[in-house]
Amino acid sequence: MALAFKDLHWTKNIQVQQYLQPGTLEEALEMLANFEGKARVIAGGTDVVPQLRGRDIEVEALVDITRIPGMDGIIEDGENIVLGGLVTHAQVASSNLIRDKALLLKEGAGSVGSPQIRNVATVAGNLVSGQPAADTSIPLLALDATVTIAGKDGEREVPLTAFFLDKGKTVLDCTREILTRIQFRGLGGNEGGCYLRLAKRKALTLPMLVLAAVVNADKRKGIINRAAIAMGPVAPVPYRATNVEGFLKGAPISDETFISSANMGMQECTPRDSSLRGSCDYRQEMSKVFIQRGLKTAVSRIGS
Ligand SMILES: Cc1cc2nc3c(=O)[nH]c(=O)nc-3n(C[C@H](O)[C@H](O)[C@H](O)COP(=O)(O)OP(=O)(O)OC[C@H]3O[C@@H](n4cnc5c(N)ncnc54)[C@H](O)[C@@H]3O)c2cc1C
What does pTM read for this prediction? Predict the structure, then answer.
């Protein structure tokens, strides 16, 4: 179905000729293909609309995917949790399944913007926008999530560790492809996680630093089996502190371990000096605090 673009109230100052509303995934992919790179997917519109208004991007058509059925649910599939490509931050933040199996993602989704933004903005859109400190990208990266991308020639699965290419750039071409699913393994009984966010206010503010940690440990033996630490914005893309993760394999659960991890992680981070987000020195210092606090909190949540 096509709407007259001028009839939509939010289109002021936007130069797009067509607003298309496909009813199926196949129809959406066909529409994108017909525009040969000159149409773009829109879901919640919270990133696309400001970009169109600011003339940061130019397109002939927008393909609104919100009417495609079967993409707006959060389901458990064995050990895995699957988020459909249209799931919003509000859905994730209020899901009991996510609270029980991936608390760090609930904490990230609940930090996005404001209730109005969370009600329409999607997790998939957050990933595809490719910002280095996006509030759901960081916990999903720590959860080792993978995404399913549909195109005219079929589907492919991509781990998030290979999804982000550069600031604002991912392996997905949103003029031709659609992210249909996000999947990850829910946390088990010997795992805990947490999400930390440093910002000037509690709502509607850019994060200066975010960290998501997942720790798998044997608390009885006092040993960490493995850990995942994702951070942003400390590099052009959402970042995994792999050296620290290597150090933590088999390390004892102790304050010394957490302090050594924090010192090591701080060296890995290279945030830019930013008038909006703070100086490099300050954020490096805070990354040390966050790594230590994040690991300690994640361990304390194991079994709870
Ligand atoms: C006032 C305000 C405050 C904000 N605060 C935060 C914040 O605190 N933290 C944060 O992380 N973000 C924040 N954002 C950014 C934004 O809300 C998120 O990035 C949002 O999750 C994007 O989702 P969307 O559905 O609105 O995407 P859209 O704007 O519809 O699309 C974003 C991009 O993804 C593509 N796209 C969307 N869905 C798909 C899909 N399924 N398949 C393929 N391509 C797709 C689009 O083509 C576009 O390139 C804020 C935005 C605003 C306007």
Answer: 0.95
